[in-house]
Amino acid sequence: MEEARSSLARQERPGGSDPACNPPRFASLCITDTRQGLAQARAFTRRTLGHWELDHRSDDAVLIVNELATNAVLHAAPHSAAGQNGVRLNLTLRRAHLVCAVTDQYDSPPVCPRTDTPLEVHGRGLRIVEELSEHWGWTRSRAGKTVWAMLPTPPSRPTSPPWQGPT
């Protein structure tokens, strides 16, 4: 069962739908330690960003959330008490950034394993997060740890075609 808490309702202020003019928004999802739970996290992220009119950030955010959530489910969930998964996805829209954060009950730091072979399947998740995000990191708390990544929210500016001279 999907447990979600969010503030998807619009809080209009001067500036209309411009995310930079609105107060922070928050959405949260408890992730089960199954493939279905990871699929729900991806769908939840895409749906939430659609509500926040951030479709242009959706692909990167979904990939980041998938990597962070997969790491938590694979590495942290096995250390949780029986029946107490404790993996939670939080999405926060701030003035100029979307913060994707996954909290789990395991307090060991995230590890970026060295991958020497170009076709290695495992060990690339945090490197993908690093490449797609503006910043990423982790914090430890009494409850475990949170791994987060920040994506800038302003739309990318279209580039003008090179000047071709008079026609």
Description:
This protein has three helices and six strands. It has 167 residues and is an alpha+beta fold. The chain has a single domain, classed as 2-Layer Sandwich (Heat Shock Protein 90). Strands 1-2-3-4-6-5 form a six-stranded antiparallel sheet. The longest helix is centred in the middle third of the chain and has 19 residues, at 58-76. The model is unreliable at 5-16 (pLDDT under 50). Residues 37-149 form the Histidine kinase/HSP90-like ATPase domain.
Keywords:
167 residues, alpha+beta, Heat Shock Protein 90, 6 strands, globular, ATPase, protein serine/threonine kinase activity, transferase, Anti-sigma-factor_SerPK
CATH architecture: 2-Layer Sandwich
* Helical content (DSSP H or I, runs of 4+): 25-40%
Strand content: 25-35%
Major sheet? 6 strands, antiparallel
The CATH topology, please? Answer: Heat Shock Protein 90
- What spatial order of strands do you see in the largest sheet? 1-2-3-4-6-5
**Elements, N to C (H/E):** EEHHEEHEE
> What is the CA-atom radius of gyration, in angstroms?
18 Å
Q: In CATH's first tier, which class applies?
A: Alpha Beta
**Span between N and C termini?**
62 Å
Number of domains: 1
Any low-confidence stretches, pLDDT <50, length ≥5? Answer: 5-16
* Overall form: globular
Keywords: Kinase, Serine/threonine-protein kinase, Transferase
Pfam families: HATPase_c_2
GO molecular function: protein serine/threonine kinase activity
Domain Histidine kinase/HSP90-like ATPase: 37-149
